[in-house]
Amino acid sequence: MINFGYSINKPRVIDIDRNNLHKSNEILREMPELQACIGCGSCTATCTAGNLTSFNFRKVHTLVRRGEYQGAYEEMNKCMLCGKCRLVCPRGINTRGVVMLIKRKLGDF
Amino acid sequence: MKHVIVIGGGIAGMQCAAELARGGIRVTVLEKQSDTGGKLRNWHKLFPSLTPAGEVLGGLNHTLRRLPNIDVRTECEAAELSPRRVVLATGEELECDAVVVATGFTLFDARIKEEYGYGIYDNVITSADLEEMFNTGKVSTTSGAAPRRIAFLHCVGSRDEKVCQRHCSKVCCVTGVKQAMEMKELFPAADVFNFYMDIRMFGPGYEEMYREAQQRCNIHFVRGRISEVSPTIDGRLQIKAEDTLTGRPLKIGVDMLVLLIGMRANDMNAVLEQRCGLERQTSGFMRPRDQFLHNTESNVAGIFYAGAVTAPKSVGESLNEGTAAARGVIEYLAAKECTDNSTIDE
Amino acid sequence: MNMKRSSWTEYQKEIADDRYYYARSCIRQNFFPGSEKAFLNILGKDLGRDIFDDPLHTSCTGIGYHSDIVPLETIMTVVARQFALMSEAGYENFTSSCITSFGIYTEILSTWEEFPETEERTRENLYKATGREFSKPKNLAHTSDVMFHHREQIARQARRRLVNVYTGEPLRVVEHIGCHYAKIFPKSGIGGSEFPYVLAGMVEAWGGEIVDYPERRHCCGFGFRNYLVQANRGYSVANSHKKLESMAPYKPDFIVCNCPGCSMFLDKWQYTIAEMEGITYGANGGGIPVLTYEEMAGLVLGYDPWELGMQMHQVDVEPLLDKMGVEYDPSAKYLGRNGKYIGQPERALVNSCSQDTLYKIKR
User: Fold this and answer.
1) Residue A81 confidence (pLDDT)
2) What is the pLDDT of residues A40-97, one digit of tens each?
3) Peptide bond before residue C330 is cis, with ω within 30 degrees of 0
4) Closest partner residue to C241 among A1, A2, A8, by Cβ?
5) ipTM, 2 decimals?
6) pTM for this entry
7) In what side-by-side order are the strands of the sheet with B191-196?
8) What is the Cα–Cα distance from C123 to B67, expressed in whole angstroms?
9) Of the candidates C5, C7, C214, which has its C-beta nearest B232's C-beta?
């Protein structure tokens, strides 16, 4: 192999055909209300951790739903479980439950 | 007996004609197609209640036939009109005392959005095609197989400057939700994805329907517009979009893509503007005298509007406008008779 | 490709039939030098058209312009000078060999149309700098448009077809249009930007079959300032990588390109990808041959592949020549004018052909 001084960028695309949606489906089966998210961002706006770190709860659970699990567990670990997000969610999603569920299901990723 | 011509035998025109006849007015309905009912003839079920379109249409047709003094002329097109006279495409002239324009809308031609491959690739269909499939009971891919993954694309020919359709067609959002649910019902094992820019659930029960689609029916909603559709080697369709809520491009192979086509203004509206002195909006739809108190009147006294000729509207709204326009006509004719009589008295 | 509708018929443009002023391409004449010569020969000798190759004309400076080195006013003046040379030579139909240039010409003409003051300023600049005055071309076409225009006549004069001589099946061809051909102004390209027909039309007319693969419209990754800066090359090559990954399952016999930059990149990036990641995309374990449309037309008309300059390709073209039934002298591959040995490339992963020792003997 020759080193030309650069590497070939890996695609950033979310490839639904290649992603294994098994875990994602499992999560949604256990907590179907997560699918009712309308992406308003209230959870992230009010998030204690998200205001001080790069943690974005809305984005992480959306990625998980698309089968992008890498780093989700580590991200969810940033959550302080304060519960404010659950208070503001207009769809009544048990957001703290989502954090715990994703951590439980995706510890291996 | 006063005579009013209703141009367009769609639902707004039918409702308006019935209401006028009830008010003791002789009505002539001019319908371009071979039968009344307009676009609803090809629709299967109506949101959000899933009422069969045939039920609504049957009711309207029944009323129309039952009432006296309604003459429905099918395969008959108006070429020019004024408050007292309508000239048909054949050159025949009809006298009247007022005119209601209920000519509706034109479905956006999805072939114009070439990047979606409608009319080019198999299994790219429109929302109207899907309703026809529901009607015939044969819903499948072109090969006759049950689709395993179905995508809906919202806003095809709506909110799109590139095809000169800047307006929102309003009813496609909820149609997309409705059809996605119907497909999920037919093919419970299939994954259904809706690609949208905004989900505009404006009517009663719509938002609830949307939530049910998400939570109960497991329909995936991806906020992002499809940029391109291509065929894959295994005969499926590859779709590219941005999943804007994660900020990453997304691609997915599907067996069927349904384009939720919008409503655009009829080409005839330009003729109404040029030859009949009626005003049009920038969207191409006709401009009512004002949006609040005179919503079913045109800028010309004696010419009225009902239904989607002035803007995209739902079935319920169009029916209401049919009634409202008829009331307006009756009031107009009464007031006119009053002034005419007083002129004679002098 | 089984398309139910010919979108291209809705996007047609007028292409002059004869008397062209020819503007060369920097990249094409350096990387595919035989192509421009072939184009002039095909137009002039095979088709009997008048085409003028003017030694006075220059680069359009498009590479510099797209790399933020040449300012807009300068490139407008350069373009104006080309037009002035065209008028001086007594021609009205301008044809450019390069997609970048073609994009620049169409964009500048349209800028002058929309903002007449920029045209006035350009006239002034050109006059001050060179004492020349210019008229705008009556007809502007890319050279592939001109080739497309004559595709039926070429088909009638064809010595070979784009057909596999062993199986009798049409050759499977991937066509790549180049972004600046129709993505700037869809109406400036035959078939528009979504279903461009300029190359597809030639391929179909000459017996081949177009492959409609998912990343057909994706950019090759050329992008000027991206490949020019080493640190950015990773995402430049990633674009070609994406296309090659997408087309490989269709097992295309060759790729034909509209744009000189794309021809170069799709050819040479195959080498880069092979050397960096060990992946090759051709059916025979080597690369997928990449042709210019001049080379494709030349082969159809019976030109010698080495006369067409096909030894300059990174990916060996011999497997394609064999499929097409082209007779060629393997030992003459690296012999230039007057039989002089021109050197040969190092062995690489994308090269599928045995490196014949004959060259060494001749040397």
Assistant:
1) 94
2) 999 999 999 999 999 999 999 999 999 999 999 999 999 999 999 999 999 999 999 9
3) no
4) A8
5) 0.94
6) 0.93
7) B124-126, B256-261, B149-156, B191-196, B220-223
8) 76
9) C214
Report the alpha-carbon distance of residue B200 to residue B51 in Å, rounded: 21
Name B240's bridge partners. B228, B251
State how far the alpha carbon of C130 is from the alpha carbons of C80, C124, C125, C213, in Å: 11, 10, 8, 48
Is pLDDT of C360 > 70?
Answer: no
> At B79, phi and psi to the nearest 5?
-105, -35
Distance of CA A18 to the CA centre of its chain: 18
- Helix A95-105 / helix A57-65 crossing angle, nearest 10 deg: 50
Taking the mean position of all CA atoms in its chain, how far away is CA C294? 7
What pLDDT is stored for residue C12 in this prediction? 87
Q: Say whether C3 and B119 touch across the interface (CB within 8 A).
A: no
* Whole-angstrom distance, CA of residue C66 vs CA of residue C240: 20
Q: What is the pLDDT of residues B167-206, one digit of tens each?
A: 999 999 999 999 999 999 999 999 999 999 999 999 999 9
Band the pLDDT of C1: cuts 50, 70, 90: very low
Q: Which two tokens stand for residue B19?
A: 């209401």
In the three-class reduction of DSSP (H, G, I as helix; E, B as strand; rest coil), residue B261 is classed as: strand
Q: In whole angstroms, what is the distance from residue B256 CA to residue B242 CA? A: 19
Query: Cβ of A13 and B223 within 8 Å?
Result: no
CA distance readout (Å), C231 to A7, B108, B202, C226, C235? 9, 46, 50, 8, 9
Torsion, Cα of A45, A50, A54, A60 (10° steps) = -80
Backbone φ and ψ for B254, nearest 5 degrees, come out as -135, 160
Interface of A with B in 14-53 (CB under 8 A): 14-17, 28, 32-33, 35-36, 38-39
Count how many Cα atoms sit within 13 Å of the Cα of residue B73 in the half-sphere of its side chain: 14
C-alpha closest to that of C200 among C177, C217, C178, C183 = C177
- Cβ atoms of residues C146 and C43 within 8 Å: yes
Q: Are A97 and A89 in contact (CB under 8 A)?
A: no
Distances (CA, A) of B153 to A71, B16, C151: 30, 34, 39
Task: Decide if B9 contacts B38 (C-beta within 8 A).
Answer: yes
Give the CATH number of domain B110-262.
3.50.50.60
CA distance B172 to B203: 12
Residues C85-129 pLDDT 10s: 999 999 999 999 999 999 999 999 999 999 999 999 999 999 999
State how far the alpha carbon of B240 is from the alpha carbons of B37, B301, C72, C89, in Å: 38, 51, 34, 49
Looking at chain A, how many residues does it have? 109
CATH superfamily of B3-105+265-345: FAD/NAD(P)-binding domain (3.50.50.60)
AA identity, residue B216: R
Helix C233-247 × helix C260-277 angle, to 10°: 90
C-alpha distance from residue C243 to each of A80, B66, B236, C220 (Å): 44, 65, 18, 7
Q: Where in chain B is the domain with CATH 3.50.50.60?
A: 3-105+265-345, 110-262
Say how far apart CA B178 and CA B183 lie, in whole Å: 9
Show residues of chain A in contact with C249, CB under 8 Å.
none
Question: Does the beta carbon of B249 lie under 8 angstroms from any beta carbon of chain C?
Answer: no
Chain A: give the shortest CA distance to residue B166, in Å.
24
Among candidate residues B34, B27, B36, B40, the one with its CA nearest the CA of residue B8: B36
Q: Is A54 on the interface with C (CB under 8 A)?
A: no
B214 contacts in A (CB within 8 Å)?
A: 35-36
Amino acid at A58: R
